Amino acid sequence: MLKINDLHASIDGKKILNGINLEVKAGEVHAIMGPNGSGKSTLASVLAGREDYEVTNGEVVFEGEELLELAPEERAAKGIFLAFQYPVEIPGVTTINFLKTAVNEIRKYNGEAPLDAAQFLKMVREKAKLVKMNDSLLKRALNEGFSGGEKKRNEIFQMAVLEPKLSILDETDSGLDIDALRIVAEGVNTLRSPDKSTIVVTHYQRLLDYIVPDYVHVLYKGRIVKSGTKELALELEEKGYDWIKAEVEAAHA
Amino acid sequence: MSTETIDLKSKLIADFRSQEKAVNGEAQSPFYQTRRQALARFEDLGFPTPKNEEWKYSNVRNLVGRDYNFSAPHTLTQEDLNRIAIPNVSGNILCFVNGKYEASLSTIVSPADRITILPMRQALEEKPDEVNAWFGKMADSQQEAFTALNTAFAGDGLYIHVPAGKTVEQPVMLYFITDTRTEDVASQPRNLFVVEERAEVKITESFLTLGEQHSLTNIVSEIHVGKEAHVEYYKVQNEGGTASHIGTTQVVMEDRSHFYSATVSLNGAFIRNNLNIALDGEYCETFMYGLYFPDGKQHIDNHTIADHRKPNSQSNELYKGVLRGKSTGVFNGKIFVRQDAQKTNAFQSCKNVVLSPEATMNTKPQLEIFADDVKCSHGTTTGQLDKEALFYLRSRGISKPEALSLLMFAFCEDVISQIRIEPIREYLEGIITQKLA
Ligand SMILES: Nc1ncnc2c1ncn2[C@@H]1O[C@H](COP(=O)(O)OP(=O)(O)O)[C@@H](O)[C@H]1O
Ligand SMILES: [Mg+2]
């Protein structure tokens, strides 16, 4: 589904990603872990198409197509979804209106007729139930004045509505209490299917108790320095990142 | 096109003198005295130049260098009016074309015991004492050249009187239409709205143009808001690309009165709005909303004053602007808190989004506070579009133009939603949607 080859990216001339290689097949869940500042959000943003980053080398192929050529909205229409680490507050645009526009823009892109108001509302109600999203939040301005947990839940709700092929969850677990975490994880798990893939960015093992990954990768200084299965996450939980940092430094010495 | 410029000041002064010969007994009337004094002031002041601090960013040289017809005939029909008017507005419709009242295009529906609506000339004949009690007493012809000029030529415009305790349910809609289909046109409407104690009224001034020739409107409205009176006042500007507008609205509020206003400037070549509110009573409350949306080479300048003269009053101001093309915007918001005006609350905010690198916004909040126990805040922001927000929307599949229009519409809606007359709100939303498409 997704193949990243030797991806280098920088911002304001500062190199942040230094040769990422990663393959995600349909149905797989990959966890990306790593210390703060190692480039996890940068990778997620580059995949979603944030224009601030300059890709200096490498390629990303999504469903057989060169992804980096596409505008963010085209990537979304083709099935990429990023749950933001810091969802943006947008005053004056209600969540429901925003989602209706998004759903219908994607349908238009894919040559489908727009949903009418009734069809849309019915679908949205079902999805809201799935992530236990309060109806009243839907009528409020997008993320404005939402609590941290509400914002994260809203991200998963949007994911449920848009039904992407590849979801990238950027620290969706941070700032969530255990109940909220469970709801978010349940939402993700319900949406899991053999033709859908997920990349879970986190630096805690906690979320991975609920969303069990097929693979775990450690990102450090803009590179994937270690890959393994879910046991790697447990090991990181126990020992921290220092031993990995030491391994990387030793290899460079 | 003629590039020849004329000396409009001399021409107007000469016009006044020659008209004066025809004035007989009227010459001694207070109204005429006020006009004559104003002309003398205008003669001294002349048109402002950018050296005048209040006109620093708004250069009127080009617009006062044209030979306009100040009493241009027109061919505007009811069909023309229907085509350009704000749809579905019911109530009292008062139509002025090229500055002159058009009875045949106007309708008054509110009962006469609740409101008097008269063209200014007729009001001067029928109720000279009422008019003279207020005319020229509020607006400043001493320092403001355009106001002085307007006062000097006063005579066209509307007189509205709402007696004490009366509520006017039906809105009052004034259309000022400039028909420039055959020549360059200028007009100087002068309005006087007197709203007595405990009375309530909603007044809208709407400015539209037909035709491609140049026009200049120099309008002054004086509004007296009596004790405990409630006035809603909207100004809607959707003129053509060759229309210039200089407008002053001078409001004086008495104790416990409310003045609620919104000024929306969507189109016009050159716009200067002065909204001056004197809170001349205790426990007054005023709201000033504004939205401007210049594009191309348009220039929109809003100058506002909240002059707190007595204790315990509140002013709230929110102006927003979206600038595109090579347009320029100006916001100058003055808050005066006089020594007497303890316990004043005054809030001012001006937010701008500059969508094009060639557009410029100049903002200047100006607070002069002479009382010590007051709450005042002000803030202006001028920035580009929120890139984070744009990316967020695009990452959900919303195309860039659609995302831009969602964000900008929301930005404008903050002000538009404050307009309490639904057809006007819908009209403005429609135009904004079109502009964003
Ligand atoms: N907009 C930016 N401008 C400059 N540096 C940035 C920007 N965004 C991220 N960085 C830097 O890039 C590095 C990686 O950041 P990020 O991808 O957010 O890491 P992570 O998500 O792993 O914590 C950090 O050193 C961060 O300071
Ligand atoms: Mg991050």
Short summary of the structure?
Chain A contains 9 helices and 12 strands. By secondary structure, chain A is of the alpha/beta class. The radius of gyration of chain A is 18 Å and the shape is globular.
Q: Hey, which two chains have the biggest interface?
A: A-B, 31 and 23 residues
Runs of chain B in which pLDDT lies below 50 for 5 or more consecutive residues are none
**In what order do the strands lie side by side in the largest sheet of chain A?**
6-9-10-3-11-12
Helix content of chain B: 10-25%
**Count of alpha/pi helices of chain B:** 9
Helix content range of chain A: 25-40%
Quaternary state of this entry equals heterodimer
As for the CATH topology of chain A, it is: Rossmann fold
The SSE string of chain B, one letter per element, is HHHEEEHHHEEEEEEEEEEEEEEEEEHHH
* Main β-sheet description of chain A: 6 strands, mixed
Return the domain count of chain A.
1
The chain-level mean pLDDT of chain A equals 93
> Helices and strands of chain B: which structural class?
alpha/beta
- The secondary-structure element order of chain A is EEEHEEHEEHHHEHEHEEEHH
Q: Please give the order of strands in the largest beta sheet of chain B.
A: 2-1-5-8-10-12-14-16-18-20
Number of strands of chain B: 20
Question: What do these coordinates show?
Answer:
The complex is a heterodimer of chains A (253) and B (437). Chain A is an alpha/beta fold. Chain A has one domain (2-252): Rossmann fold (3-Layer(aba) Sandwich). Chain A has 9 helices and 12 strands. Chain A has a 6-stranded mixed beta sheet with strand order 6-9-10-3-11-12, with helices on both faces. A 4-stranded antiparallel beta sheet of chain A has the order 2-1-4-5, with helices on one face. In chain A, strands 7-8 form a two-stranded antiparallel sheet. The mean pLDDT of chain A is 93. Chain B folds into 2 domains: 8-280, no CATH class; 388-437, no CATH class. Chain B has helices at 8-20, 30-45, 78-84, 120-126, 128-134, 145-152, 387-394, 400-416, 422-436, and strands spanning 92-97, 100-101, 116-119, 158-162, 172-179, 185-187, 190-195, 200-210, 215-225, 230-238, 243-253, 258-267, 270-279, 285-292, 299-308, 314-323, 328-337, 345-354, 360-369, 375-383. By secondary structure, chain B is α/β, with parallel strands linked by helices. The two termini of chain B are 32 Å apart. The radius of gyration of chain B is 21 Å and the shape is globular. The longest helix of chain B is centred in the last third of the chain and has 17 residues, at 400-416. Helices cover 22% and strands 37% of the residues of chain B. Chain B has a 10-stranded mixed beta sheet with strand order 2-1-5-8-10-12-14-16-18-20, covered by helices on one side. In chain B, strands 3, 4, 6, 7, 9, 11, 13, 15, 17 and 19 form a 10-stranded mixed beta sheet that branches. In chain B, helix 2 (30-45) packs antiparallel against helix 6 (145-152). Classes of the chains: A alpha/beta (253), B alpha/beta (437). The A-B interface holds A 48-52, 71-73, 75-77, 81-82, 84, 87-88, 90-93, 98-99, 101-103, 105-106, 109, 141, 158, 162 and B 386-389, 391-400, 402-403, 406-407, 409-411, 413-414. Magnesium ion (MG) is lined by residues 40-41, 85, 170-171 of chain A.
